[in-house]
């Protein structure tokens, strides 16, 4: 954990919070904190700042927090034709750490129908994974997970006016060019669409192109969805920072 996060309701009116469990164990056994130590803390979905350890004992840690900094904003939203539930569970924390703001899960033609009944799609299952990932990367902005089983309905209704750059990952397309995306985005969020392992169908590609998406690829290899997503987002992030 690189930042201890609290739910809003955990923090008292005077800024103090008492917590136990895994977070307290990390503070005591990994950070070796004692009263007076200042920790990086924050509110899930809110601001970040610091918390001074006031008391430790009985498996609990008490901190007095000041959260007056705005957490870094997400730089990208993702349209994802989801892989199998086990792979999606592995991928989700990585998306959080890489800075995704909205995750739009879409029912593309090659998405297995059984995915939509997976327990990982329940908020009580995926939210703890997201929060753990936020604490790992040291920020607090919680991504939003949206589920759209009807691909055509979703894409037809998609409002693209806030996305000056819209990219579509598909095998054997061009590679990202350094500097292009940073200039085009100009501080706005980028929108990236990642398809299933076999790629998008011809009709899906046509719909994306009608919405102004540019097709890209790392190379001609057909990658697993989780591998492709992390690799492409990493490449884009590097280009945006140039």
Question: TL;DR?
Answer:
The protein is of the alpha/beta class. The chain has helices at 21-30, 85-98, 123-137, 151-157, 180-185, 202-210, 225-240, and strands at residues 4-6, 16-19, 38-43, 48-57, 60-69, 76-80, 100-106, 144-148, 166-174, 190-194, 214-216. Strand 4 (48-57) and strand 5 (60-69) form a beta hairpin.
Helix-strand blueprint:
Elements (H helix, E strand, L loop, with lengths): L3 E3 L9 E4 L1 H10 L7 E6 L4 E10 L2 E10 L6 E5 L4 H14 L1 E7 L16 H15 L6 E5 L2 H7 L8 E9 L5 H6 L4 E5 L7 H9 L3 E3 L8 H16 L2
Parallel strand pairs: 1-3, 6-7, 6-10, 7-8, 9-10, 9-11
Antiparallel strand pairs: 2-5, 3-4, 4-5
Would you give an account of this structure?
With 242 residues, the protein is an alpha/beta fold. The protein folds into two domains: 4-69, Ribosomal Protein L25, Chain P (Beta Barrel); 76-240, Alpha/beta knot, CATH 3.40.1280.10. The chain is built from seven helices and eleven strands. The chain has helices spanning 21-30, 85-98, 123-137, 151-157, 180-185, 202-210, 225-240; strands at 4-6, 16-19, 38-43, 48-57, 60-69, 76-80, 100-106, 144-148, 166-174, 190-194, 214-216. The strands form two sheets. Strands 8-7-6-10-9-11 form a six-stranded parallel sheet. A five-stranded mixed sheet has the order 1-3-4-5-2. Helix 2 runs parallel beside helix 7 (225-240). The longest helix is centred in the last third of the chain and has 16 residues, at 225-240. The chain is elongated. It starts with a strand and ends with a helix.
